[in-house]
Amino acid sequence: YLGGGVSVPEGKFNWAMDKAKSDSRCCILLARCLYKDEDLVNRSVTGQPSRRNLKHGAVKRKPITPAKVDAIKVGLSHYVKRRKTAVPDDERISKARLHLSNFLSEKNRPPKAEKCPQVPLTPPVPLGSPNEN
């Protein structure tokens, strides 16, 4: 139980805690435990459109559930208690929303178009070297 009526099976929670190598990875793994991949498509943490893309007609996205965001913060706090660093615990936990936002924006980014193959530049061929002849 992570709070707010949100729970994750103990096996999945322990798996996420053991597999995570960083705070951001912990948030991502917990989000994947709480949501299916198709539920994360076209979602954002706040639901607000990107300010950068407002002039291009960006629209609101469905926000992820605030109770689940808080649950991910609780899960991250367990991870932070297990793995201490020089950074204060509160500062690490406060970045949970940032990690989720980065994860969702990466997930919703369109696939990159395949680049045209570049023609390699060939080095100039010397006309004649002084050691010949």
UniProtKB/TrEMBL annotation:
Protein name: Uncharacterized protein
Annotated region (Disordered), positions in chain: 102-133
Source organism per UniProt: Ixodes ricinus (Common tick)
Compositional bias annotation for Basic and acidic residues: 106-115
